């Protein structure tokens, strides 16, 4: 299966307009943003856990990173409320689920296979002092990628010419970019060489951004 697998093209997905698709696990549904592969895939997905649902124990051979968008995600490592950013590197294991229900934005098989840095962060707690109406937190940075979280005041502008492509998820509020109006749960991916330029709407904006990673995009090693 290939979904938005041309990484040389600009992609905008208004994810709330997509139909939920059932996963192999009852009570867990998903909206696929990009994907290379079948059930084992290099994938970017929004996943919804119904209350009381869970996956069986499994190992993330290619690593997993996710943001809790609403509700509380749970596994044997603890409870992860909305606004939590988590990195589970290759070889990590867990039994994910949610008693109250939750929605997460998750990326699979997109790690350096030698990465063993496992952590969780409350994104808002990491924000630096605002500059020109923009407060940003660096959540993760290595030789392959940089991951940030930003709050933009109403009307504030932000730009990035980072090498290696740029990917943005709107966590809250709204913004405009390249003529597109993007709201909560919308997803934007820019190819390598294209500059990101956004202006927050009247309600401000909260956004997660990753850059530098697209040259490493490839199918999972299975």
UniProtKB/TrEMBL annotation:
Residues 9-111 form the ChrR-like cupin domain. It comes from the Bacteria. InterPro entries: ChrR-like_cupin_dom, RmlC-like_jellyroll, RmlC_Cupin_sf. This is ChrR Cupin-like domain protein. It comes from Ruegeria meonggei. The lineage of its organism: Bacteria, Pseudomonadati, Pseudomonadota, Alphaproteobacteria, Rhodobacterales.
């Amino acid at each position: 299966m290939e979904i938005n697998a041309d990484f040389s093209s600009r992609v905008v997905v208004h994810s709330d307009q997509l139909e939920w698709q059932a996963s192999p696990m009852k009570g867990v549904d998903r909206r696929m943003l990009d994907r290379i592969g079948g059930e084992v895939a290099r994938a970017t997905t929004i996943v919804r856990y119904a209350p009381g649902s869970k996956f069986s124990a499994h190992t993330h051979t290619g690593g997993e990173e996710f943001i809790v968008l609403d509700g509380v995600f749970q596994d044997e490592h603890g409870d992860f409320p909305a606004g939590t950013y988590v990195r589970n590197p290759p070889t990590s294991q867990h039994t994910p689920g949610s008693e109250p229900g939750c929605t997460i934005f998750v990326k699979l098989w997109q790690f350096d296979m030698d990465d063993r840095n496992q952590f969780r962060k409350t994104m808002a707690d990491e924000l630096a002092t605002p500059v020109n109406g923009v407060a940003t937190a660096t959540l993760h940075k290595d030789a392959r990628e940089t991951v940030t979280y930003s709050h933009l005041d109403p009307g504030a502008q932000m730009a990035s010419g980072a090498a290696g492509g740029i990917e943005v998820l709107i966590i809250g509020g709204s913004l405009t970019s390249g003529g597109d109006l993007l709201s909560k749960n919308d997803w934007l991916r820019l190819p390598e060489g294209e500059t990101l330029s956004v202006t927050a709407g009247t309600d401000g904006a909260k956004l997660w951004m990753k850059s530098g990673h697209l040259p490493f995009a490839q199918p999972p090693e299975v």
